[in-house]
Amino acid sequence: MMKLLPRFFKLLLLSGLLLCFFKSSQWVHLWRPRKADPTQTWLEIQTQRKIILNSACLKLNLTDTVNKLKPRVAIQLYVEHNHRLIFCSIPKVGCSNWLRILLILQKNLSSELTKESINRNELLKYIHTTPLLIKLNRYPSTLQQELLSNYTKVMVTRDPFERLVSAYRNKILHGVQSFMKLIKAAFPKSSNNVTFQEFVNFILQEKLNNNHWRPMYKLCDPCRIHYDIIGKIETVNQDADHILKSIGAPEDLHYPTFKTFATEPRTNEQITAEYFGNLSSKQVEQLLKLYEFDFSLFNYSSNVKYMNLSVL
Ligand SMILES: *[C@@H]1O[C@H](CO)[C@@H](O)[C@H](O)[C@H]1NC(C)=O
Ligand SMILES: *[C@@H]1O[C@H](CO)[C@@H](O)[C@H](O)[C@H]1NC(C)=O
Ligand SMILES: *[C@@H]1O[C@H](CO)[C@@H](O)[C@H](O)[C@H]1NC(C)=O
Ligand SMILES: *[C@@H]1O[C@H](CO)[C@@H](O)[C@H](O)[C@H]1NC(C)=O
Ligand SMILES: *[C@@H]1O[C@H](CO)[C@@H](O)[C@H](O)[C@H]1NC(C)=O
Ligand SMILES: *[C@@H]1O[C@H](CO)[C@@H](O)[C@H](O)[C@H]1NC(C)=O
Description:
This protein has one domain (41-302). It contains 16 helices and 5 strands. The protein has helices at residues 4-24, 27-31, 38-59, 71-74, 95-107, 120-129, 141-150, 160-172, 177-186, 196-206, 216-220, 236-246, 269-276, 281-290, 292-297, 302-305; strands at 77-80, 85-88, 134-135, 152-157, 229-232. The protein has a 5-stranded mixed sheet, sandwiched between helices. Strand 1 (77-80) and strand 2 (85-88) form a beta hairpin. The N and C termini lie far apart (97 Å). The structure holds 2-acetamido-2-deoxy-beta-D-glucopyranose (NAG) (6 copies). Residues 45, 48-49, 299, 301 line the site of one 2-acetamido-2-deoxy-beta-D-glucopyranose.
């Protein structure tokens, strides 16, 4: 009897270990149908986005490990020290909403600031001019590198053609003076209300010399900076929730839904198609060439969608 007891315990231990092994291993999935875990799915999509990006970087020979971070890129990168976040801002890609979030995080302000009741225009003006938001270019280059390797790096993209139409609707249709002057200087004969065709000709001629229509990859340099999270405006609510969670933001902070011109519909696929229908196929081809890297790197396919709309 006394001899059998240790054996019994050994057996018990062994079966316990076996049970643990089976419980934690994939065997479980054979018995139970696998539930789609939203976080798991989101992570898988992130992995896919990065694989597509990295292989496009290699294919397009954009992987530059030799040269230093360009000042033009460092000035796009906002640094939020409390949550160890670096965010690349791209005009016309929900940029004001993200700056609002950064400001709330930085100052530990109330999440109430994402709600509609706050005077939108005043806050917008404040966000774009406040010295509270710090950009990476403010730091010496060695510290820039250190921050880039220590912090969570995030960029958010948008369909290149939707972004272009959004820039036109926002800056030209609303007659923002600085933009009108640019176009008038280049095309003195353009109509008083610059048409989308004229705007496109202007862009084709001046070769993207403005951040509002400069390709996204040039602003954020994703082939050199290995962004931890690549969000898309097309999935921004989900992406923002995961981004905020991963940096430990307050739980009640969510991506706001502000628009500068609140009564107008947001530029979407259908509106973009309407504008592109007014371009010649030559113009569309030239735009495709101009934005081809954005299409490849960020896996957008509007090049196919908007190619054959032209009636001219
Ligand atoms: C890439 O684009 C294709 C075609 O639009 C789409 O089916 C696929 O889901 C996209 N992949 C990712 C990771 O977004
Ligand atoms: C890739 O780019 C580097 C410099 O950025 C250049 O020296 C090299 O020739 C390029 N390679 C190809 C295949 O284009
Ligand atoms: C931010 O505010 C929260 C709640 O008001 C507080 O618990 C936290 O300590 C504050 N953090 C900092 C860094 O001030
Ligand atoms: C970056 O991380 C390293 C290693 O953890 C640490 O020694 C360094 O102080 C950090 N630098 C900054 C600026 O946070
Ligand atoms: C330009 O647009 C304004 C306001 O949208 C309109 O009142 C005006 O008639 C337009 N002018 C031309 C020349 O189309
Ligand atoms: C397309 O062109 C027509 C004719 O010039 C014009 O009436 C219409 O407003 C244009 N549509 C867009 C979305 O620019």
